[in-house]
Specification:
- By secondary structure, this protein is mostly helical.
- It has a single domain, classed as Four Helix Bundle (Hemerythrin (Met), subunit A), CATH 1.20.120.450.
- The protein has seven helices and two strands; from the N terminus they run ααααααββα.
- The protein has a two-stranded antiparallel sheet with strand order 1-2.
Length: 178
């Protein structure tokens, strides 16, 4: 019996691709369904959750790309590895309501759905590009810090993107049920 590596970049990029396809399907819904908040479930509307997760995916994929290329100002040797955060990433599930989105991935107050669609297309293309460089992702030795999870390597950034996207899609699904 083989053990599945939760940090396998190919598996995480494939799963992220499926999740991003779900985001695209959601964006095809009427604007009223995307922009109306359901406060009993979340302070954010579906559109705000989607905008946030696309921004976070973009950042995560950019970080993984920088690590695979060994280029960028934020790269450093692993020095702040957080065992609890790594266990959370391995589980692939985040608790609800624990963390607040940093300013740079907080959705704008007014959601521009056309812009969100363009950003999603860019993220999907970046994911596709990274899928062609699995060896470099696996071999990248350095890290880029995450503000809550500590230093993450390329494989961990991909796992974060997958788990974070799934987390917000679960909330989006719950909002849609109301």
């Amino acid at each position: 019996m083989s053990v599945v590596d939760p940090l396998d970049p190919g598996r995480n990029l494939a799963a992220l691709g499926l999740s991003l396809a779900r985001v695209a399907r959601r964006l095809a819904l009427p604007a009223s369904a995307l922009l109306a908040p359901v406060r009993a479930v979340s302070a954010w509307s579906v559109g705000e959750h989607l905008f946030h997760l696309v921004l976070a995916c973009d950042l995560s994929l950019r970080n993984a790309t920088s690590l695979a290329r060994d280029e960028g100002l934020l790269l450093r040797e692993p020095e702040d590895k957080n065992p609890e955060a790594l266990a959370l990433l391995r589980r692939g599930r985040f608790p609800r309501g624990v963390a607040r989105a940093p300013r740079f991935v907080t959705p704008p107050r007014r959601i521009d759905l056309a812009l969100l669609g363009r950003l999603l297309a860019e993220v999907r293309a970046a994911r596709e590009h990274l899928a062609g460089d699995l060896a470099a992702l696996s071999a990248a030795p350095r890290t880029i810090p995450h503000q809550l999870l500590g230093d993450l390597d390329a494989r961990e950034w991909l796992r974060f993107a997958r788990a974070h996207t799934a987390h917000h899609l679960l909330i989006v699904r719950e909002i849609g049920r109301r």
